[in-house]
Amino acid sequence: MRTTNPNKEGLYAVMLEVSKLKKRSYLSLKIHGDPHYWDDIQERFVIEKGLRSKEAKERNEERKKNNYLIERYNQRAIDILRKFEDEKVDWTLNQFKEAFTGKIRQGKFHSYILEHIKTLRETGHTGNANCYDNLEHILSLFDNKIQERVFGEIDYKYVKRFDVFLQKRKNESNTRRYYMKSLRAIINKAIKDGEATRGTYPFGKDGFKISELDKETAKRYLPNDYLVKLKTSKSSREVREYARKLFLFSYYCYGMSFIDMAHLKTKNIVIHNNGKYIVYFRQKTKNQPKTKPIQIKITEQIQQLIDELKQFKEPMKDYLLPIITVDHEGEKLYEHITNKRKRYVSYLKDLANEFGFEFNLTSYVSRHTMAMQLQNNSIPRDKISQIMGHNDLQTTNTYLDSLDSSVIDEAVKVL
């Protein structure tokens, strides 16, 4: 600690001293403290015990935080010197300073996620940007110091506390899973970009198990008698009848999501293998590497539903279904589809009440019902995985490579 030139609070700067060939350089760590609590031998702040006043405890916690940062910066200096040695670099003080200060600018979680959100919006990935926006917002509610956190502080204990916070907010396991998967994804990206390390990685084998949240989430699917009623009964209101037909279209199209239905265009219909197919990439995974398209043979039920849905309203431009009703692009289009989906979910809820279902009918139920119908009719799970375009891309791509569309065409006849 330098004991000259205190700041306006009367605190003194902690500096990193680097020397080589009798030359010295001092680097600011942006840490200040009271020299009364500085241990010159340990080169750390003194941590007291048995404190009673709130103010004294807060100052003590601040010293603990500063000691943690000093440890990190000291280790960073050692790592840089070790790298110079491994690469046989005859380094200078300026080279060390450039390497060290460059790394100081890295590693801030909050600035990193905001920059990533900005990039996603600028490149048209509005859905993903909104996911990370939601994560940033909930983390700001959980942690009032999130803007100062470095990635190393987002460790297993931190994530466990975050999960407890979500539970106290009465968030269900699927909501908690949503946030945890987003957090894992941004940390993985930061590691890949060199902004974080795996030293404090909070997930994986010995970390927080997101898969356990998957097990907690009940997948709701329609009982057979409800499914039959949806297929054979008509609603008394036009908007509910529209929702019913859209739900059945999703069901017969392997549980296609609402956003994927909205984006379907006439160009997604192709003719091959002596039949017509809907061929598309899921919006959720289309930007992931080695993702392959989903192929859906247009059966009589699917073609009939396409024709009947057009009777409610003629599709706009070259869209296949009458979901998008404005000529927007980018973020405005995403918001339009989101609002349309909310209405769709509302119509489904009213439809379930009309039909006397003791069941919460949602847009996801068609996907879960489709999967259960296939499983209950002894369709192997590998085929079901391919049909659903499962998120486990390594497994899914294995199935896509080994299975041709004719096998799927036969499998889905049980729907």
UniProtKB/TrEMBL annotation:
Q: What sequence ranges are listed for the domain Tyr recombinase?
A: 216-413
Q: Which SUPFAM superfamilies match?
A: DNA breaking-rejoining enzymes
Q: Does the keyword Electron transport apply?
A: no
What InterPro entries does its record include?
A: Arm-DNA-bind_5, DNA_brk_join_enz, Integrase-like_cat_sf, Integrase_catalytic, Integrase_recombinase_N, SAM-like_dom
For the keyword Lyase, the answer is: no
Please give the Pfam families that the UniProt record associates with this protein.
Answer: Arm-DNA-bind_5, Phage_int_SAM_5, Phage_integrase
Q: Which Gene3D superfamilies match?
A: 1.10.150.130, Intergrase catalytic core
Q: Name one GO molecular function term.
A: DNA binding
Q: Which UniProt keywords apply?
A: DNA recombination, DNA-binding
Q: A biological process (GO) annotation for this entry? A: DNA recombination
- This one is known as Phage integrase family protein
Q: Which organism is it from?
A: Tangfeifania diversioriginum
Organism taxonomic ancestry = Bacteria, Pseudomonadati, Bacteroidota, Bacteroidia, Marinilabiliales
